[in-house]
């Protein structure tokens, strides 16, 4: 039964997984429609009943899935305490919680139910087998030191800039405390720029401009790091496949014969 | 007649296509001027008449073009039910619709007429034959799995973040429903940052900052994917042209002779 | 005299050019300080006189420079009707214009004087001789077809999206005419996101989200194009320098001897 | 003692440095919590005392560290007048300054204390030994001419665009002086887009759109420059390691034996 339903190496297992992901997707769409309609129109009692019925249906389905998984897994503990075990449990709870404590705010329950989108990741998990992702992943792994250094540096720049602006602009201009100032620096350096907090004084605008220009200059660096590592990874793959006869490399990934001596190349 | 006017392999066909694109461009410019002047100044009756005359002229021209295409095409059905057939038909209709149902709102008709910009794509279609686009296209095709995975993952992150913020900030702070929250997440992760909906509470700003930093970190990934695949594609082109005499590759695309033995290279 | 002052191949010519650029820089800084102080503090008559004297000084300097250039150039017409001839003439005029027509608005004169920043480009012109720029320029030239196609496509997407939003949101929500809608689309697709005009209805937000996601997806393409062409250009340079003895390429740009046979390599 | 505590080549030195960095991190977190709580809730006297005690503790710790460094350094002057000497001194001062001049604004002291984040850079300094950063650094050094030219050009474009918009929109629309206009141009070209100052007139919006499109087009250039130089740097590293036996290069960085002849490769 485990192999039939949950082993992603079998075809039926992959299909069942896709089905679970599909139901998660449908449940998320239902939550969004309910939330959207609920705030814009006055729904009649019958219309509410439809959404309630849908929600009960999805909760029962997910509960069933959870029980099945716990029963079928060779080691149920391993599943229950895994990432997916927590996610699966957490996303079937909102309705039960609402039954037990009906005084809980409705928007918390909505938010909770929207978390089911994480379940949709199951569909992506099925696609993980595509070999192309390996290159990207290897590039990120190789670049991890550079990326960690870069992002730590940027975080410190944000904290320093936030502190500076708190001193320059201060609470009257919206920089109410250090946390808010750093929130402003995050929004600014990443070029999001909401505009809910902006510098109003001359020196503040000058510091903000300098911070923006620093952010603008460094935005090229992570892209450069990841791209260069990916290109390097492609080059490595190219060099790794050598002709068994003449020992020359640099063959395209779709090449089947050595371009120098014509012998058959090993498969990737 | 089909070869004369619509076959883009003949010179006259390309010219006619360019002429159609040019008229589309002129009609779009006319619509924009009319819309701009109409809201900023009070136009006299004569000035309006000029724009009405222009509009009738363009509609007649496009109608004529449509009839010509239907008549000349070897298989008219194939044209009528093609993408361009729909676009051509849709963009000659606004005036006829306005005649039949004059009570339709004027801004819908303006929006409809602006859709003629799609027709201008015909001019771009003429440039499609440039061989350089092949590399870009091939890179996107090769990278499609990675890109689909990436954008799906980002979409799920947006939905989850939208749900979270709906729970944390809630309707009083502008996150009126789940759809609005996800709209906010889209605007935030992509670094657009309108600022029409922003977090106001401490925890909300913290979650928003984390979401922004995630968005900032991953923005480098699609660029890396496309660039690495394009560089790889260039490398492949380089390797694909081998000297017929000494079988060495890695020649520049503008090289005409082998750099090792001097024999003539095959053309690209 | 021409060779002494304006021929950038001589050392004195480059120094004179740098001096002119430096004065332009100083004049721009003076204009900014004057404009900043003028709006924030009440300047005394004496302080104004200082700025007026500075302005007269710079105008006389630039006039002198202009006369010198016209006199020294082998063919004065060629200078006067060149790009730099126009810029030089235009940026000495504001004070003379203010003398002739004192009723002209002061902010137009300020804006005019700020244009002197273009003169600072002269300093950059001196740096143009750096050979490294050649690679970037060659990459942009090679990529021009792809870039033109890409930006034309994006412009048409902006016009179509602007038209759509004008129909969906309409004048009451800030989309006052088609031009404003396209301005909104430009601000949105490029991820600037001012937030002065934003969608307020559900369908408007949905279309805006899709437009934002399209903009987010395509932003990687121009970077990919330029980077891949630059990498290709570096590879070409690498391959172009062959060892005169063993005809092997792929030497680093700083290598002076062939890594295979040790013979001296030709200079770049 | 110097070798024991501050020589980063010894293990104990690196540990002490990490400890100092950790305390700096803790002190920054304490400042943020104090600032956040102070503005949102009314703290009791006891709670304030806790933060005051923490602050005194950190100040004493940092003072001790500073004295230790001055005493242990072989040449104390070299430390005191180095970058880190200034930072270390500056970040222990706020409490002493507050004791001497209690009338100083509390938000200046908060801002000052937040500057301790710079001390956290010490932790990053420990990671500097990672060899991978060398590639990035070398790429930036090689690309410096191109980057300087690019950013100078962008700055001049910003000044010119700011001047133009000051003339077109003027003080009534928020462009109060030339400095503010350039601040707007910086915010716009870098795609931050706060929206605190936006064009309101038709021509202003047109110029803004053109400026935005210029900014959008050139954002790809620095990324392209850095990426191409990094890829080039990787290629160089690849080529630099030649097999001592057959003199062939292009080995992967993790390869230990020549792929052509099987001899051991020199270490990186």
Automatic annotation (TrEMBL), chains A, B, C, D:
Q: Where in the cell is it found?
A: Membrane
Q: Where is the Ion transport domain?
A: 15-234
Q: Where does this chain mainly localize?
A: membrane
Q: How does it sit in the membrane?
A: Multi-pass membrane protein
Q: Which UniProt keywords apply?
A: Ion channel, Ion transport, Membrane, Potassium, Potassium channel, Potassium transport, Transmembrane, Transmembrane helix, Transport, Voltage-gated channel
GO biological process terms on file: monoatomic ion transmembrane transport
InterPro entries, per the entry: Ion_trans_dom, VG_K_chnl, Volt_channel_dom_sf
Q: Which residues cross the membrane?
A: 16-33, 48-68, 80-102, 148-168, 206-228
Q: Which SUPFAM superfamilies match?
A: Voltage-gated potassium channels
PANTHER family given in the database record? POTASSIUM VOLTAGE-GATED CHANNEL PROTEIN SHAB (PTHR11537:SF254), VOLTAGE-GATED POTASSIUM CHANNEL (PTHR11537)
* Name by which UniProt lists this protein: KQT family voltage-gated potassium channel protein
């Amino acid at each position: 039964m485990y192999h039939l339903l949950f082993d992603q190496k079998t075809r039926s297992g992959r299909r069942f997984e896709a089905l679970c992901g599909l139901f998660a997707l449908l449940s998320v769409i239902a939550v969004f429609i309910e939330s959207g309609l609920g705030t814009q129109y006055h729904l009649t009692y019958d219309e509410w009943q439809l959404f309630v019925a849908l929600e009960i249906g999805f909760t029962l389905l997910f509960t069933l899935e959870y029980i099945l998984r716990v029963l079928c897994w060779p080691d149920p503990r391993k599943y229950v305490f895994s990432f997916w075990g927590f996610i699966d449990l957490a996303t079937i709870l909102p309705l039960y919680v609402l039954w037990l404590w009906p005084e809980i705010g409705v928007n918390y329950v909505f938010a909770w139910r929207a978390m089911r989108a994480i379940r949709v990741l199951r569909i992506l998990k099925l696609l993980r087998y595509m070999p192309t992702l390996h290159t990207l992943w290897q590039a990120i792994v190789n670049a991890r030191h550079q990326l960690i250094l870069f992002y730590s540096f940027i975080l410190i720049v944000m904290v320093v800039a936030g502190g500076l602006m708190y001193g320059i602009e201060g609470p009257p201009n919206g920089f109410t405390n250090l946390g808010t100032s750093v929130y402003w620096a995050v929004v600014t350096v990443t070029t999001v720029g909401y505009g809910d907090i902006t510098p109003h004084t001359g020196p503040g605008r000058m510091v903000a401009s300098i911070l923006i220009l620093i952010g603008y200059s460094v935005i090229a660096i992570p892209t450069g790091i990841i791209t260069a590592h990916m290109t390097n990874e492609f080059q490595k793959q190219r060099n790794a496949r050598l002709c068994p006869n003449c020992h020359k490399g640099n063959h395209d990934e779709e090449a089947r014969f050595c371009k120098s001596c014509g012998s058959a190349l090993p498969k990737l």
